[in-house]
Amino acid sequence: MTAAITANLPVFIIIAPLFVAFVLPTLAQRMRLVENLVISVEALMLFGACYLASIVLFQKGIPIIYQMGGWSAPWGIELKVGSLGAFFLLVIAIVSLPIALFARGNLTFEVGGKERRARFYVLYLLLVGALAGMALTNDLFNVYVLVEVATLSCCGLVSARNHPRAAKATFTYLILATLGSCLVMGGIGFIYIVTGHLNMGFASQELGRIWQNNPRVVWMAFSFMLVGFGVKSALFPLHVWLPDAHSVAPSPASAILSGLAVKGYLICLLKVLYNVFGHTLMQTYSVHKVLVLVGMVAIIAGSISALTQDDLKRRLAFSTVAQVGYIFLGFGLLNTKGLAGTLFYLASHAVIKSTLFLSAGAMLAVTGKKNIKDLSGIGRKMPVTTAAFTVSSLGLIGIPLFSGFVGKWHLLLGSFESDNILSVAVIIAGSVLCAAYLFPIIRIAYFESAPEKDWKDPNVPQKLALILLSIVIVVLGVVPGSLLELAGRAAAELLVLQ
Amino acid sequence: MLSLILALFSGAVGGLIVAMIPETNNRLRNYIVLFFASSSAFFTWRTAMKVFAGESVRIAGELGGLAFSLDPDPLGAVFGLIASTLWLFTAVYSFGYMVGKHKQRTFFTFFLISLTMTLGVAFSGNLVALYLFYELLTFATYPLVIHERSPEAMKAGSKYILYSLSGAGAILIAIVLTYAWSGKLDFSGGPMLVNSLRPGLNWLLGLFIGGFGVKAAIMPLHRWLPTAMVAPTPVSALLHAVAVVYSGVYGILRTVYSVFGHELIGQLGIRNILPWIAAITILAGIATATRQDVLKRRLAYQTISHLSYILLGAFTLKAWGLAGAIFHMISYSTLKITLFFCAGIISEMTGEIKVSKMGGIGWFLPKTMVAFSIATMGMIGMLPLNTFWGKYYLMKGSVESGKWPLALVLVISGIINAICFVPAIVNGFRGERTKTSGEKGGRVSLMLAPTLILVIIALFIGLMPGIVWPGVEAVVNWFY
Amino acid sequence: MSILIKKLIINYPYFAAFIIFSIGALTVLKRSNLFKKLIGINIMESAIFLMFVASGNIRGGAVPISNNNNPQSLYINPLPSALMLTGIVVSVSVTAFALALILRLYRSYGTTDLRRISEMGNEVAE
User: Fold this and answer.
1) Chain A contact for C18, CB < 8 A?
2) Chains that touch A (3 or more CB pairs under 8 A)
3) pLDDT single digits (tens) B46-93
4) How far apart are the first and last CA of chain A?
5) Comparing A2-6, A393-397, B235-239, which segment has the lowest mean pLDDT?
């Protein structure tokens, strides 16, 4: 029995949230049950992810391959739990559990009645399932399907609040995201035309042999993939949809959108770039230079745009644009340290940005104020929320003791290794700018006089979620241990290929 | 090892306890602050004595996947001693100064937490620990800078943060680069970059000095310091004349002696530029000070000037220069804090902050003005005071390094110091001698007592420099 | 030159897909009417479907049904067509979702023009 469960764990971890998602609408009247179900699925995922990660760590680089329906590789669909997959799965589980916990306390305010809340959870679980699929899949067309599932559930989450602005933001998001998916599908098409394979491993082998026959098609595939995933992961200047969508969404949704959904697309891009094209081909086409360049532009432009925002959630949303820049930059470094740093940075940003959005959401729910200036003295009234916000801000700026620093440190080492001094300067400048746009919020929260209002910390599940996430930020900053090791190994595996 | 931990964390623990005491219970709070400040000072003494005796006091671990260690060597011990001892004096002074001021709880909380951060900088055993505490010190002192909460104070705070974080960014790049080139981060075991002469080292040193130079207030990176004078006087005295600015100076000393090593810098082209940067800051700082009318601003520019004395000593790359730098670090801190204490007493007792309006103030506050005069003599570098010896060794080091004009710079700077403050003192004792004295009552004696004791200490060291010499010698022997 | 034209003629489905894709993309980006944007998306997707399906076609190939009379015959590749069924499903669901959103927007703003909706901004209540 246990052997069967273990053997089928990779697929189970994807199926479980999807399955539960479709059961939820039938239970809409029993909200307590729905919430418990969601939390237990998340907990199971966390458990499974930890288990898979430990196996992967223990096996030292031999991935677990799961063949769907028993069909073997070039014809069947594969799930591959390598270091990268286990790593991202772990990140998904760590982040999505507290968000679900937070949603439990906060959702009535954000989206309203039982029906709507149940639907929110449906979308939430669909998104989590799709992300888990992205982490594990080894098949290009599956990537497309999962990307689409994720996109549609993201759009649904953005529009969960019954407000015309939400509908407008969703529409823009939907159109641009679909444009992105079209490009991704086109890119997949080009790869398929050249190689005749959809399995990443086989496509990669084939591509390595025959890309010289159709250099232009490969070039097209590269550019379609870059632009397609660039739109989806809000790469500057393709980010236009993100600030509206992420600021108008209910806070738990903003958290998972900014924290995880964007990362899912980035992981897909990473897989396509390194597992399909491979780093030698990237160098041949100078894709890595493009990545570093667009990353640097995104860091600076995103940070400066964030500086000009007065709306708290919009500022955080623009900050995501900047942070995505770091990850693009890291993808282009083409060395183990840089790539490991990028992966760790991705994980740390997932946790940090979720915490930021959740605490901002809690503040918003209590005060009803969107503008940063109206939050004066909130640190005194809502100590836990503001403390979580502060911890995550320090993490995002990259102060030692917090997770962001570890990622940045390795990113810097990687930049030096690839002799890219300009990117070093940009990374540091991004940190300073990040301090410039987050620090005033902390200052206003703590050091300005509080109005005589009855603001209080939110209820227990929300507080618990914030505390959990803050602890994760600090723990990752002090003892990154196995997560950093997984990231390092994933980076090594990505670069060893070919 | 236990005393190291107790010395380091007394401040932070005390700060957290203070944060829980109600705003109105001043008496209890003061006792707790006194207890933790003295415990920190006591255990720092014990740690330092062990370090001077040649014992290794080392705590090593891992932080975020990076090596992290606390391992005070003589230089760190000297800095720790200066900081924790003066912290105790400033604590007593603050009890008097803060009477009737708002947000005392916040003030003392961060006052104590900053102690931990400063000692962390002093005790750090590798670059990661140094960077961590250096960065945290910025955040811990920020609430002290903006204590007044006036728009001016808020602006000064933002400026402080922006300057410090930019500096820290440069330091981070430099640290990563050092690690990438040498694979080492630890201070123990000789300079990290020794035997790795390669192009780019000039830039690396420039990056380090530019980064730490923000807090060490090297011109033109000094601009945050005068504006930060809106902080309460004990903060200006302790942090902006000693602890925070010394952490920058300490960082530069570390860079020169533990990261590069004086031999390596001796082979770099930048060695001919650095002393002159310090010299320019010395002269420009004190020259600007003469034009300031607000006393605290004048003192701030004097601080900028005197910090570069220490840097000058380090940049001569000679043993005597280093000795002078350490000596000046010790003696200057006692006197500068006195000057600020006096400025605080004057502004609290008379409400006067401008030098031009302080005529006849010496008759009203005689002891304060006497202390002020003696400290000023020290700033000029006159004999019965301890600063004389520091300056003497600095000149010796400059001449030894073959750059005799540097010695001249020091002399000229002494003269400008005199021009800057002597007229003010003379002005202070002008006019009719009044009978009334402002120095009565518990509050003013709380402020006066540490001031006078510090002056006496300074005189004592000046007359018997031998008592601090073992510390200076230990540092010099450590690096040469 | 003639080689290029020859290639274009041989690969005419791809050329057509490219043109259709450009039309769709332009429609999405240029038009401010919500419906037209949606139609543009659909046109774009059709172009990608066309490309995929064309990639499976082999000239002279037979329908890929196992036929004992003629075991050696050349079959076309059925996989892309099968994949595109999924693509079409996705496209339909996107369309349905977008239509629902348009309806919602029309009820609130009284228009289906994105530019005018943006101009109205936050004035419209729930």
Assistant:
1) no
2) B, C
3) 888 888 888 888 888 887 778 888 888 888 899 999 999 999 999 888
4) 38
5) A2-6
Asked if A307 and A437 touch (Cβ cutoff 8 Å), the reply is yes
Q: Which one of C34, C44, C126 has the shortest CB-CB distance to A182? A: C44
Q: Is A22 exposed, middle or buried (0-12, 13-18, 19+ CB in 10 A)?
A: exposed
Query: Is the pLDDT confidence value at A18 over 70?
Result: yes
ipTM rounded to 2 decimals: 0.90
Residue-wise pLDDT for B439-479, tens only, equals: 777 788 888 888 899 899 888 888 888 888 888 888 888 88
Q: Which two tokens stand for residue C126?
A: 């729930």
Q: Which residue of B has its CA nearest to A406?
A: B64
Residues of B in contact with A435 (CB under 8 A): 161-162, 165
Helices A83-111 and A114-136 cross at an angle (nearest 10°) of 170
Interstrand relation of B66-70 and B59-63 (parallel, antiparallel or unpaired): antiparallel
Answer with the residue of higher pLDDT: A327 or B348.
Answer: A327
CA distances, A430 to each of A90, A319, A405, B253, B292 (Å): 27, 10, 13, 28, 37
Which chains form contacts with chain C, at 3 or more CB pairs under 8 Å? Answer: A
Tell me: the pLDDT tens digits for A353-387?
A: 999 999 999 988 888 888 888 888 888 888 899 99
Secondary structure element (H or E) that encloses residue A65, with its range: strand A64-67
CA–CA min distance B252, chain A (Å)? 20
Question: Domain segments of chain A: what residues?
Answer: 2-496
Q: Is B149 on the interface with A (CB under 8 A)?
A: yes
Contact A412 B165 (CB under 8 A): no
Comparing CB atoms, the residue among A141, A155, A167 nearest residue C104 is A167
- Dist CA C28 CA C35 (whole Å): 10
φ, ψ of residue A371 to 5 degrees: the values are: -75, 140
Confidence class of residue B227 from pLDDT cuts 50, 70 and 90? confident
CA distances from B74 to A320, B78, B102, B313, B476 (A): 45, 6, 39, 17, 9
Judge whether C87 is closer than 8 Å to chain A, CB to CB: yes
- The amino acid that residue A161 corresponds to is R
Question: How large a percentage of chain A has pLDDT more than 70?
Answer: 99
Looking only at the bridges linking them, the beta strands covering B59-63 and A78-81 are unpaired
Residue C126 pLDDT: 44
- Contact across the interface for A416 and B176, Cβ inside 8 Å: yes
As a whole number of angstroms, the distance between CA B212 and CA B168 comes to: 7
Give C96's contacts in chain A (Cβ within 8 Å): none
A329-355 residue pLDDT tens: 999 988 888 899 999 999 999 999 999
Residue A112 has pLDDT above 60, yes or no: yes
Burial B88-115 (b: 16+ CB within 10 A, else e): bbbbbbbbbbbbeeeebbbbbbbbbbbb
Q: Are A440 and A332 in contact (CB under 8 A)?
A: no
Nearest CA in chain A to C77: A196
Give me the residue label for tokens 């860091």.
A299
User: What residues in chain A have their Cβ under 8 A from chain B's Cβ atoms?
Assistant: 394, 397, 399-401, 403, 405-406, 408-409, 412-413, 416-417, 424-425, 428-429, 431-432, 435-436, 439-440, 443, 446-449, 476-481, 484
**CA atoms of A283 and A293, how far apart (whole Å):** 14
In degrees to the nearest 10, what's the CA dihedral of A386, A391, A397, A401?
160
Q: Are A66 and A78 in contact (CB under 8 A)?
A: yes
Domains and CATH numbers, chain C: 2-63+74-120 (1.10.287.3510)
Tell me what pLDDT residue A303 has.
Answer: 93
> Which residues of chain C make contact with A171, given a CB cutoff of 8 A?
34, 98, 101-102, 105, 114
